[in-house]
């Protein structure tokens, strides 16, 4: 087998793994708040704590994952396989924790899923950025994003059928999580078949070296201002992150079918957005597209408050999915290629830690304010829109081209 054939085979297996990963993780990650509310009886403040654990576990994984990935960088694909497999299994099995009737088991499962996923994601990002060149990145990643969002769409359609056909909510969840578990096992199989494409020398990293590298990266103008932009946007986006499903269920009187149909609409819009990016990638300037996408994203919390019916929720999610598709594609390019190869993993780790600390604080802050009453809950959505818009103006002034 030639080097070109081997690379093509490696990329195909990675794509198959990514498709099934998306199918496996979509249902547990979308329904985890609704499952906590409906199956476990969580209050809005408890959902806020759950969301805090969900997000902060990612930051912890980034902090501890960096020295691990570098210490065994010559075996980074093995680290990717091990931790991503644990991530998949933890997500899929989390939906069976109500059998024990012990509430803390659920946030523990979510925490493990996110912690292992962040370490696996570090090893994955470091690997894939060496396999995929900057020139082919937009075309290939937008294509893969289309495949993975299609897989997510299939999972959501299956969940609509399940929740529509079965009146017993816990049984319906059980079936959905069983589908997730099956997809997870097959995804793990494809992941296990990958091999090291290019080895990097291992390196021991202590706290002082990490701090020094973080400082070195942040001394540069472009990374510093990009991280600041992402921190502000991340905080504003996650301020109501514990409230979307709670507001839908408790205020709009929606159910799991609403959540599924909304996510189907969002996913279809994401597929369309990814298709547009893939077709027009040669014309798109990552900075311009990313910053302009923040404008429609800024209006989303306000639009949500005026979407109390299922048809309006569907329209809202179409608008949301299309807007986020452009931002996510371009921010992924920035994340991987804003700094040089030697600093990339430090930058990704620092960005992951900072973003997830910001997001976890925002989610807990938002749920705490919302627990005071409905009017305060609405205020959280309004504040989220205002802060998102402020991040747009910051990016216009400070974020530079790649």
Describe this structure in words.
- By secondary structure, the chain is mainly α.
- Helix content is 82%, strand content 0%.
- Helix 3 packs antiparallel against helix 4, helix 5 (134-165) runs antiparallel to helix 10 (256-279) and helix 11 packs antiparallel against helix 14 (374-398).
- The longest helix has 36 residues, at 3-38.
- It starts with a helix and ends with a helix.
Q: Kindly report the average pLDDT value.
A: 89
Principal-axes geometry comes out as globular
Main β-sheet, in a few words?
Answer: none
Parts with pLDDT < 50 across at least 5 consecutive residues: none
Determine the structural class based on helices, strands and strand pairing: mainly alpha
By DSSP (H or I, 4+ residues per run), the number of helices equals 14
**Percentage of residues in strands:** under 5%
What's the Cα radius of gyration? 20 Å
Distance between the termini: 36 Å
Helix residue percentage:
over 70%
Beta strands, count? 0
Helix-strand pattern, N to C?
HHHHHHHHHHHHHH
Write the layout of secondary structure elements.
Layout: H1 3-38, H2 44-71, H3 76-93, H4 105-131, H5 134-165, H6 169-192, H7 207-219, H8 221-238, H9 244-250, H10 256-279, H11 286-305, H12 310-337, H13 341-370, H14 374-398
Helix pairs in contact: 1-5, 1-6, 2-4, 2-13, 3-4, 3-6, 4-13, 5-6, 5-10, 5-12, 7-13, 8-13, 8-14, 10-12, 11-12, 11-14, 13-14
């Amino acid at each position: 087998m030639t080097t070109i054939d081997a690379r093509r085979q490696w990329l195909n297996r990675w794509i198959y793994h990514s498709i099934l990963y998306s199918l496996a993780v979509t249902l547990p990650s979308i329904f985890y708040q609704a499952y906590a509310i409906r199956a476990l009886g969580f209050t809005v403040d408890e959902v806020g704590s759950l969301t805090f654990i969900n997000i902060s576990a990612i930051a912890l994984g980034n902090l501890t994952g960096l020295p691990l990935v570098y210490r065994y960088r010559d075996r980074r694909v093995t680290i990717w396989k091990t931790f991503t497999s644990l991530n998949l299994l933890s997500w899929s099995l989390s939906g069976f924790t109500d059998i024990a009737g012990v509430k803390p088991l659920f946030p523990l499962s979510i925490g493990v899923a996110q912690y292992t996923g962040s370490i696996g994601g570090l090893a994955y990002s470091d690997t894939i950025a060496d396999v995929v060149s900057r020139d082919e990145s937009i075309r290939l990643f937008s294509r893969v994003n289309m495949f993975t969002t299609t897989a997510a769409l299939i999972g959501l359609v299956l969940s609509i059928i399940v929740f529509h056909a079965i009146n017993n909510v816990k049984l319906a969840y059980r079936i959905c999580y069983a589908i997730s578990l099956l997809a997870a096992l097959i995804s793990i199989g494809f992941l296990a078949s990958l091999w090291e494409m290019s080895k990097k020398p291992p390196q021991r990293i202590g706290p002082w070296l990490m701090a020094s590298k973080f400082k070195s990266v942040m001394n540069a103008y472009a990374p510093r201002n990009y991280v600041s932009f992402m921190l502000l946007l991340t905080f504003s986006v996650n301020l109501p992150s514990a409230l979307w499903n709670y507001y839908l269920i408790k205020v709009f009187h929606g159910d799991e079918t609403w959540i599924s149909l909304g996510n189907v609409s969002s996913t279809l819009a994401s597929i369309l957005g990814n298709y547009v990016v893939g077709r027009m990638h040669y014309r798109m300037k990552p900075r311009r597209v990313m910053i302009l996408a923040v404008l429609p994203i800024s209006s989303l919390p306000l639009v949500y408050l005026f979407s109390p019916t299922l048809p309006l929720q569907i329209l809202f999610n179409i608008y949301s999915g299309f807007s986020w598709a452009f931002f996510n594609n371009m921010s992924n390019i920035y994340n991987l290629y804003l700094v040089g190869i030697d600093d990339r993993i430090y930058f990704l780790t620092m960005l992951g830690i900072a973003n997830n600390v910001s997001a976890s604080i925002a989610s807990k802050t938002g749920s705490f304010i919302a627990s005071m009453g409905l009017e305060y809950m609405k205020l959280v959505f309004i504040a989220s829109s205002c802060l998102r818009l402020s991040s747009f103006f910051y990016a216009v002034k400070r974020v530079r081209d790649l």
